[in-house]
Amino acid sequence: MKIVDAHFHCWELARGDYGWLTPALAPLYRDVTVADWQAQSRPHGVRGGVLVQAAPTEAETHFLLDQADANPAVLGVVGWVDMLAADAPRRIEALARHPRLKGLRPMLQDIADPQWILQPALAPALHAMADCGLVFDALVKPVHLPHILTLAGRHPELRMVIDHGAKPDIAAGQWQPWAEGIARIAKETQAMCKLSGLLTEAGPCPAPGAVRRWAEHVLQSFGTDRVVWGSDWPVLELAAPYALWWAVSRQLLENLDMESQAAVMGGNAIRLYGLHIPQKSGVPKIAG
Fold first, then answer.
1. CATH architecture assigned to 3-273
2. What residue segments make up the domains of the chain, in order of their start?
3. Each residue of 63-102: pLDDT tens digit?
4. How far is residue 49 from each of residues 82, 118, 194, 220, measured CA to CA in Å?
């Protein structure tokens, strides 16, 4: 089984462009390196991962690509670009020349207008992403799902993945309209969905089984060929350590056949992002 963590982060506070990352988020307010992530993921047989943007700047995208150049465990990068820039298509094409750039992610959850992504001015950037074979990572909440459905209808050629199951408010028991929104995206589009971030939405120190209902809905809606596992580490640490999410994930998938487990835990990410896992990864193989 080729296990891939399809969603993790690293950052250097001194870079100064992480507007959301403040001392109030004490567990996260520290420098985080790829090596720190490897120390968490490697004991579980993770072969590599996708490093995802955490700041709305192209400077950070170049920083992440530098991390990928320095560490073969970074199989791909999901970056950021100013999609409203007049020369956005040119910028996207330039970034896409780097073989490890696999996707782009506007931070939709932090934009006040939930319909922001539908403005016509963004169409050239979205077309450029599709032309370059880049994945659109949708960092959204339930309120965004109807608009992502519209976006997918307008741009059927654009590969898309919903980050963190669209972040339902699990701590508050939110089910609708999230559940219907997820089901419609799954049924009416070709989008994939990340099985990640759910423990964080369940609040600090969530009880065993706290996310099962939501995770099972994602799996049932998208099927095991369109669900992509990730950790969202170190943001995960707001709720639980890496090892706990690993254990929860394995329990969620334990009744699936080995082929389906392998798809969710790595195969789908490899297919979605077009990843290549080096033969000599230095990571022990996991049975199955």
1. Alpha-Beta Barrel (3.20)
2. 3-273
3. 999 999 999 999 999 999 999 999 999 999 999 999 999 9
4. 24, 30, 13, 25
